[in-house]
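Re: [ENG-882] Designed sequences occasionally contain unexpected residues at chain ends

Forwarding the minimal case from QA. Structure tokens:
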């Protein structure tokens, strides 16, 4: 097989680089929400679901 063979994908000839260390999630675990934060989030969510979406001037024109 020669280097000019079009059926060979030369991109696959090299190994993949190692994954970025930023992709790993070994850091601290997220804190749980307090019952007060959960209640506040529920209230805000319900309020947002009841209100109509605001229209921008571009949409109204």
């Amino acid at each position: 097989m020669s280097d000019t063979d079009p059926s060979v994908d030369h991109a696959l000839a090299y190994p993949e680089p190692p994954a970025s260390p930023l992709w790993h999630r070994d850091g601290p675990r997220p804190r749980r929400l307090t019952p007060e934060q959960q209640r506040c989030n529920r209230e805000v969510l319900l309020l947002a679901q009841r209100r109509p979406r605001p229209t921008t001037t571009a949409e109204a024109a």
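QA comment: On inspection the terminal residues look reasonable. Helices lie at 35-50, 57-60. Proposing we downgrade this to a documentation issue.
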